[in-house]
Amino acid sequence: QVLLVQSGAEVKKPGASVKVSCKASGYTFTTYSMHWVRQAPGQGLEWMGIINPSSDKTTYAEKFQGRVTMTTDTSTSTVYMELSSLRSDDTAVYYCGRDRSGYWGQGTLVTVSS
Amino acid sequence: EIVLTQSPATLSLSPGEGATLSCRASQSFSGYLAWYQQKPGQAPRLLIYDTSIRATGVPARFSGSGSGTDFTLTISSLEPEDFAVYYCQQRGTLYTFGQGTKLEIK
Q1: Distance separating alpha carbons of residues B77 and B89, to the nearest angstrom
Q2: What does each of the 106 residues of chain B score in pLDDT, given as a tens digit?
Q3: Listed residue (A56, A58, A60) closest to A47, CA to CA
Q4: Measured between CA atoms, how close is B14 to chain A, in angstroms?
Q5: Strands (DSSP E) along A1-114, which ranges?
Q6: Chain A window 11-70: which residues touch B at a Cβ cutoff of 8 Å?
Q7: Is the CB of residue B97 less than 8 Å away from at least one CB of chain A?
Q8: What is the pLDDT of residue A104?
Q9: A105 in contact with chain B, both atoms CB, cutoff 8 A
């Protein structure tokens, strides 16, 4: 079965970077692009970007341009999302989700606090 | 950027009633309009994609419709497990979500 397993919770200081991983299994990794979406406490869903594992082509939401980097490691079927220059309002649960399907990771809580 | 506006923000209904949730886009687009359901502490669940196609395992009481700038999610007869937050998402230009509609028990 399709599984997306994300890395564990992180606590970071303002100005630092965080890198969240999403390991895929149960399907051919390069067949589907992967989205990253985040949800701040009590807020709605916010789309951050998408990466195509077969080409490494990325498209980022304008809001995150220059601060987010999405990469893949096809040898381990893992997608990474790195967000830099963290601020307190980056505190959120970050989800990876396979494109054109209902498969999501379990979410990773990133807390930014001094 | 296409902005999606969902209405109402909160919908209070009783089990057995029908629900109509609206999603309006700031400009017309062709392509993918999806609906998600989210319960507290859970990842979103895909209900509808390509405007009107139910995802695998989604009950027939959920249906989607619309085109251009106006889209609708209809739940024909509410079950207790349907009370949640619902989001629409477009992929006509990049991908954006609406702000959500909270469906609560009256």
Answers
A1: 23
A2: 899 999 999 999 999 999 999 999 999 887 689 999 999 999 999 999 999 999 999 999 999 999 989 999 999 999 999 999 999 999 877 899 999 999 999 9
A3: A60
A4: 24
A5: 3-6, 10-12, 18-25, 34-39, 45-52, 57-60, 68-73, 78-83, 92-98, 108-112
A6: 35, 37, 44-47, 50, 59, 61-62
A7: yes
A8: 95
A9: yes
Residue A84 has pLDDT above 80, yes or no: yes
Share the mean pLDDT of chain A.
96
Residues of A in contact with B3 (CB under 8 A): none
pLDDT, position B94:
85
Coil/strand/helix, residue B22: strand
Tokens of B41: 């502490």
Strand partners, B71: B23, B66
Cβ distance A44 to B94 less than 8 Å, yes or no, reads: no
CA distance B98 to chain A (A): 8
Yes or no, beta carbons of B46 and A59 under 8 Å apart: no
CA–CA dist B59, B42 (Å, integer): 19
Pair of tokens at residue A10? 């992180």
